[in-house]
Structure formats: structure tokens, C-alpha cells
Automatic annotation (TrEMBL):
SUPFAM superfamilies: 4Fe-4S ferredoxins. GO terms for cellular component: plasma membrane. The chain crosses the membrane at residues 40-58, 103-125, 171-189. This is Ferredoxin. PROSITE patterns: 4FE4S_FER_1, 4FE4S_FER_2. Residues 215-244, 245-271, 341-370, 375-407, 417-451, 460-492 form the 4Fe-4S ferredoxin-type domain. The lineage of its organism: Bacteria, Pseudomonadati, Bacteroidota, Bacteroidia, Bacteroidales. Keywords: 4Fe-4S, Electron transport, Iron, Iron-sulfur, Membrane, Metal-binding, Transmembrane, Transmembrane helix, Transport. GO terms for molecular function: 4 iron, 4 sulfur cluster binding; metal ion binding. It holds the Pfam family Fer4_5.
Length: 498
């Protein structure tokens, strides 16, 4: 019964979290977006102490239920392991815990978070790893299937489906997602939860707490006949049948051992309640202290970034945007989404799960290829621009790396400013009137003025008011100049209010 309940909940969480990454319309997030927000690492980076404490208490009561029910990467490994069991049954065996590896990886992971080495952090984050796999590998298949249905529906005079562009957003992210998928499949096929109990930092943290959980599988030595069936079916390889012991730091509370035991010798119950109560008291307090310390460090970093970049704001505030003679519109500063506050804040809180990339209706967001912020989303306007009425990225972000309170707030945020490239503009190269950028600027920040101030009839060229420009990219996206736009958006390290 317990295993059935666990499997039912795991299937529900896994299915809907997967659909969150596949749903390019963003419709499901209104109902099931909370499933992304209760993932452990996103909750930590969002400084969501309530969720972190909830998951800690959940683990202290039930064991690593999070790993077997809520975490999509854990459930994915269970699916692979289940498929492997169809070929070879009773294939697992007890293996000693590799503490040096588990806590070594955790230590490096924590140091990477503190040191801002986000590229390493996002590689190991379990929720983000699964998100990249789905958005990079499974989402194109889902979209192609949708386009096929849209084609058939159109032939039947139905518009229940509509076509969407399928394109590769980032080659490095695609390669990393592919390698991650292959490694996970190999490990899960051969060893079940090997990744969770040796590499995953979230599994190590929750494993430490689960040693003191109130409820756990317990072996009744009077009933056990040492047949070893439980150990051979334990995908966590944590049952030492010779000593009649279970390593609760690795047990993911899957209940498979209880279901397999023919003697009823394993029950999910309390074990040494007195010592467990003491352990809970001693384990929860450090977690609370660590959360408070992490919150203090992250908040301090945000204010430090604000102070350090204050002078840089003055360099580009006010007046008209500088007209630079550039042939290639290379951005000196990448553009981060409205609501991300600053490049540093975004880098510290984003787990590169690709959820915002998946739901962006204008195809503005894509994973970065820069090693310092690898796979974290950045904005580019080749396929669309950031529309004032859209806030999908902020709605789905589980870590509050992108946070908007309203569309009015978004319209007042300046994420960059437009720069005109004189040599690319058809007003100059072709001596013809255009004004496309000025007509489509939502902020009215671009005006067409005579190229010759003394001749009102001369060809008009665009002039950008940097104080009004929000950096939405409409001008860059809709500029008819090819192959490079004659006007592009230069990002701001620190976002401003206009």
C-alpha cells in the first residue's frame, strides 16, 4: 500500500513537472508552477526559508521522500531502473557508502555557490539537469508532434493547434544535456540510484537529515531469514542483510524492500524514538542556521553589487544614446530579463533550469555559451522582442532570479539601451526613408530626425533617447537591415527604472 501511494504521487509530480518544460504556451504554470518552486535547490537560491524548512521537516519525518516523489531526476532514474529490471531481476547488492565522494562533492558544490562559480553549480543541480534534458532533447520532439497535429487540424478547418518554431537555442546546452542524459541512463540502468547517493549534493544534504528521520524501514531480525531478496531489489544498495542494517542516509524511502519481503520482516515504522527525537533537535537547528547564513550572504552580495555598480550607471544615464560606428553589433554586456535586477543577482540565483526559455513566447531567451554563466538565460532579439505585455519568465521562475510584481513595473525597467550603427542603416547606405525602429518602439524612445540639421528635407535617421529606452529589442528585431541590424540593444549590468 505504501509503495502504491508513493508511486502514484511520484508519477503525478513527474508528469506535471515534465509538462511544465514541454508546455510552450505557459498555460500549465498557473496550476502546477508550484511544483517547480518546491524543488530544494531553487528554494534555497530563492531564500524561500518556508519551503526549505518544509522539505527538511518532511525528510526528518518520512525520510528521503523528496528524492523518490518530488525530484523529477530521481523519478526519472527510477523509471530507467524499472526498465532495466525487466531484463534482469534481483541485480542489486549492498555496497559501502563512499563518504569521501559524497561529502567531497557537496563541499565543492557549496564553495562554488559561495564563490559564484555558477557553471559548476548548475551542472550538478538535479532539478536543473532534468529541466535541461527535457527542454533541449524532449521539447523539440513535443513541438514537432504539435506541429504535425496543427497541420492535420488545419486540413480539417480546425485551429485547435498552432505551429511553433523548432530551433536549437544553444549547442553547448544541447551537448551537456545529451551527456547528462547518457550518464544518468547508464548509472541508473546498472546501479539504480548511484548518481543520487554519490554525486547529487541535494541527496547528500537530505541523506544527512534522513539518518534521523522519525519513520523509516526497519528490519525485524526475528522474522528475517536472511534471504537477501530485499538487498537484491534495493536500488540504493543500502541494505546490509548480513548485519540486518539499512544505511538511512542513502535510503530514498521507495518501499520496494517492504513490497519484496515475503516474510513481512521489513516495516515502515519508528526506530529508537527517544534518540530520534534528540537527533531531530540537533539536526534542524544547524539547517536553520545555515539557511540564515546563506540568506545573509546572498543579500549582502546583492547590496555590494548595487554599490559597486552605482558609478557605472552615471556613465550612460541621461542624454541621447551614443552613435557608434560598428559593423558587428556585439554586446559588451549581455542582456538579462526584466526583473533580474542585475547581472550578478541573476547569476547568483539562476539554476539554468531552462523553464523560462521553454515558455518564452517571443523566443527571446536562450542559454548562454559564456563559461562564466554557462546555460543561464540571456536575451537576444533575432527571433522576437520582449513585449511589454508578457511576463512569462517571471511567472515560472522557481528561484525568483526573475521577479516582477506587475506589468507596469516591467514597463518601467530599463534592461539596456539601443545603439544605432550608422554604417548598417539603410537610411545611409541606400539613401531611403525607413523609420521602422521609431514606428515600433513601445516606449517612444526613438525619433526620426533629418540627417542634415540644416536641411529639413534630408533623409531622416533614428535618434535614441537613452532615458526612455527600456531595451525591449523591438527596434533591433524589426530593423530591415540584413544581415546585421542597424540598431541593437546594449545590456546594462544593473537594471534601472525609467
Amino acid at each position: 500500500m505504501l509503495r502504491t501511494i508513493r508511486l502514484t504521487l511520484a508519477v503525478i509530480f513527474f508528469a506535471f513537472i515534465t509538462l511544465l518544460f514541454l508546455d510552450f504556451t505557459g498555460t500549465l504554470h498557473a496550476w502546477f508552477g508550484w511544483m517547480a518552486k518546491i524543488q530544494f535547490l531553487p528554494a534555497v537560491l530563492a531564500l524561500n526559508i518556508g519551503v526549505v524548512l518544509f522539505l527538511a521537516v518532511l525528510t526528518l519525518v518520512f525520510g528521503r521522500i523528496y528524492c523518490s516523489v518530488i525530484c523529477p531526476l530521481g523519478v526519472f532514474q527510477d523509471i530507467v531502473s524499472w526498465l532495466s529490471a525487466k531484463r534482469k531481476k534481483n541485480r542489486f547488492h549492498y555496497s559501502p557508502v563512499l563518504k569521501w565522494l559524497r561529502y567531497g562533492v557537496l563541499g565543492v558544490f557549496v564553495l562554488a555557490i559561495i564563490g559564484g562559480l555558477n557553471s559548476f553549480v548548475v551542472l550538478l543541480a538535479p532539478y536543473s539537469s532534468y529541466g535541461r534534458i527535457v527542454s533541449s532533447l524532449f521539447s523539440p520532439l513535443y513541438q514537432w508532434a504539435n506541429n504535425g497535429l496543427a497541420y492535420l487540424a488545419e486540413r480539417a478547418d480546425s485551429y485547435a493547434f498552432y505551429e511553433t518554431d523548432v530551433w536549437m537555442k544553444s549547442l553547448p546546452t544541447l551537448l551537456i544535456a545529451t551527456v547528462t542524459l547518457v550518464v544518468l541512463i547508464v548509472l541508473a540502468w546498472r546501479g539504480g540510484r548511484t548518481y543520487c547517493n554519490t554525486i547529487c549534493p541535494v541527496g547528500t544534504v537530505l541523506g544527512f537529515l534522513s539518518k534521523y528521520s522519525l519513520l523509516k524501514p526497519v528490519i525485524d531480525t526475528k522474522k528475517c531469514n536472511s534471504c537477501g531478496l530485499c538487498a537484491r531489489n534495493c536500488k540504493a544498495s543500502c541494505i546490509n542483510i548480513k548485519a540486518h542494517e539499512i544505511d538511512y542516509s542513502r535510503c530514498v524511502a521507495c518501499m520496494d524492500c517492504i513490497n519484496k519481503c515475503r516474510k513481512g520482516a521489513i516495516t515502515y515504522t519508528r526506530r529508537k524514538p527517544a534518540s530520534a527525537a534528540v537527533s531531530q533537535e540537533t539536526s534542524v537547528a544547524p539547517e536553520q542556521v545555515n539557511d540564515a547564513r546563506r540568506a545573509f550572504l546572498s543579500t549582502t552580495a546583492v547590496f555590494a553589487a548595487t554599490a559597486a555598480l552605482k558609478a557605472q550607471e552615471k556613465k550612460v544615464d541621461g542624454g541621447l544614446a551614443v552613435i557608434e560606428d560598428k559593423k558587428i553589433p556585439e554586446r559588451a554586456t549581455p542582456i538579462t530579463p526584466p526583473g533580474s535586477l542585475s547581472a550578478r543577482h541573476f547569476a547568483q540565483h539562476c539554476t539554468a533550469c531552462q523553464l523560462c526559455v521553454s515558455v518564452c513566447p517571443n523566443q527571446v531567451l536562450r542559454p548562454s555559451s559564456d563559461l562564466t554563466k554557462l546555460m543561464q538565460p540571456e536575451m537576444s532579439y533575432e527571433r522576437g522582442y520582449c513585449r511589454p505585455e508578457c511576463a512569462k519568465c517571471a511567472e515560472v521562475c522557481p528561484t525568483d532570479a526573475i521577479h516582477l510584481t506587475s506589468l507596469a513595473e516591467k514597463s518601467a525597467i530599463q534592461i539596456g539601451h539601443a545603439v544605432w550603427i550608422k554604417e548598417n542603416c539603410i537610411c545611409i547606405t541606400d539613401k531611403m526613408e525607413c523609420g521602422n525602429c521609431a514606428r515600433h518602439c513601445p516606449a517612444g524612445a526613438i525619433q526620426m530626425v533629418p540627417s542634415d540639421p540644416e536641411d529639413e528635407a534630408s533623409i531622416k535617421i533614428p535618434v535614441v533617447n537613452a532615458e526612455r529606452c527600456t531595451g525591449c529589442g523591438a527596434c533591433e528585431n524589426l530593423c530591415p537591415s540584413r544581415p546585421f541590424s542597424a540598431i541593437y540593444v546594449e545590456g546594462h549590468v544593473m537594471h534601472r527604472t525609467v
